[in-house]
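Design job #97: recover the sequence.
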């Protein structure tokens, strides 16, 4: 099956730019909100814990970048990554770091290409990073992979927000490229630990497009970042099929001292030592 690769590393760079505002210390003497935030000393790099629901087709490749903060020490060259869900196959990409760029903290990300060749729901909370003869297991939060057997549709295209700071909504645009058959969206679902996505039903006429904004509610400050790629159940010509919605990264736009304290207070078991 042809693999589909989403440009999440590029998308996440934009999301991390939002985070960078928090850690940036201006060189002039003017007082800003960013300069008022106290960043604790970072002894070891640690991964920002996130929450993701990623709907995939069997054999599809999904590119994901995991953000981390670091101080004087950085993450070494990683040769292998193993998730605690053994079905998840991982190909390691680049480790990119920007040291001392945002005051007391540097910001980096680890790029991974992920695929699963078995249908089912797979939960990942930890990953083991292998570099040479050493390895370390870190807590990354909670990532749910929901993998289905259906082939990617040729008649549907999805659009949405690649990165957004609004934590109370998810936008899904649907283009029906079939010129003769209407499509009925039966549900759009995602099982996130800290957020609830309200589903919808909708009709997409043949050759037309629609856009819907679905509500999100919950506790967005529980995790530092989210990835939402919901499962979409639809019918066409009397046949029910499963596919995936548009992948969106959700990240709070403004950080307070409380947000930063929460991240550092929640870093247990996520350190790269």
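Job complete. Output follows.
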């Amino acid at each position: 099956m042809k693999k589909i690769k989403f440009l999440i590393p590029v998308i996440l760079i934009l999301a991390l730019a939002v985070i960078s505002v928090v850690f940036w210390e201006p060189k002039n003497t003017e007082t800003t909100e960013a300069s008022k935030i106290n960043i604790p000393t970072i002894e070891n790099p640690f991964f920002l814990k996130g929450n993701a629901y990623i709907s995939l087709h069997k054999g599809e490749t999904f590119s994901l970048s995991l953000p981390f903060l670091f101080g004087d020490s950085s993450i070494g060259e990683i040769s292998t990554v193993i998730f605690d869900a053994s079905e998840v196959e991982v190909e390691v990409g680049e480790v990119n770091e920007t040291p001392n760029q945002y005051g007391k903290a540097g910001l980096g990300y680890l790029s991974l290409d992920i695929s699963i060749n078995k249908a089912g729901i797979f939960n990942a909370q930890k990953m083991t990073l292998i570099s040479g003869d050493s390895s370390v297991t870190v807590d990354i939060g909670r990532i749910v992979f929901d993998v289905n057997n259906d082939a990617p549709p040729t008649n549907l295209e999805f659009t949405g927000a690649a990165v957004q700071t609004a934590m109370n909504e998810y936008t899904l645009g649907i283009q029906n490229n079939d010129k003769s058959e209407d499509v009925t969206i039966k549900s759009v679902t995602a099982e996130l630990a800290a957020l609830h996505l309200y589903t919808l039903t909708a009709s997409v006429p043949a050759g037309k497009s629609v856009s819907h904004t679905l509500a999100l509610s919950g506790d967005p400050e529980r995790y530092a970042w989210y990835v939402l790629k919901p499962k979409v159940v639809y019918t066409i010509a009397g046949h029910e099929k499963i596919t995936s919605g548009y992948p969106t990264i959700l990240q709070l736009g403004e950080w307070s001292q409380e947000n930063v304290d929460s991240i550092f207070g929640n870093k247990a078991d996520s350190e790269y030592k």
